[in-house]
Amino acid sequence: MTTQERQRSVKLAIQTRAQSIDADEPTVVLLLDEAEHLAGLLWEFVGHLAPDVGKAGYEFEMVERARELAVNLQAAVLVSVVRSGLSLVDLTAAHEA
Q1: What is the pLDDT of residues 39-48, one digit of tens each?
Q2: Which residue, 4, 10, 82, 83, has most beta carbons within 10 Å?
Q3: CA distance between the termini of the chain
Q4: For the chain, what is the HEC assignment?
Q5: 18 in the Ramachandran plot: left (φ > 0), alpha (ψ -120 to 50) or beta?
Q6: pTM (2 decimals)?
Q7: Which of 50, 45, 42, 48 lies closest to 77, judged by CA?
Q8: How many CB atoms are located within 10 Å of the residue 88 CB?
Q9: 63, 53 in Cβ contact below 8 A?
Q10: Nearest-CA neighbor of 73 among 46, 38, 33, 25?
């Protein structure tokens, strides 16, 4: 996967995550620390194994699934942080008014 493909993948994951929250679809709640730890673990797994698995086979598919999950989890963290920040801005503005 090229850098440009990864950037498109992350952008799409963030857009999809933000839209699903807006659509009131069921969500899973993790603490920020838990989500960051899990994303870090997935990226470590991908980084460690990816160079050794070739371009096909079970291990390759497993690394690709872990990479996709890491991107989606990282997107969820980013969307959550942005939404939390916006809520804090709204609360601060309401408090100052």
Answers
A1: 899 999 988 8
A2: 10
A3: 49
A4: CCHHHHHHHHHHHHHHHHHHHHCCCCCCCCCHHHHHHHHHHHHHHHHHHHHHCCCCCHHHHHHHHHHHHHHHHHHHHHHHHHHHHHHHHHHHHHHHC
A5: alpha
A6: 0.63
A7: 42
A8: 10
A9: yes
A10: 38
- Judge whether 73 and 38 are in contact, CB under 8 Å: yes
Q: Which of 25, 24, 40 is nearest to 73 (CA)?
A: 40
Q: Which residue has the tokens 């939404």?
A: 83
Spatial distance between the Cα atoms of 47 and 69, rounded to a whole number of angstroms: 14
What distance lies between CA 89 and its chain's CA centroid? Answer: 23
Residue whose structure tokens are 């503005």: 93
Residues 6+ apart with CB under 8 A from 15: none
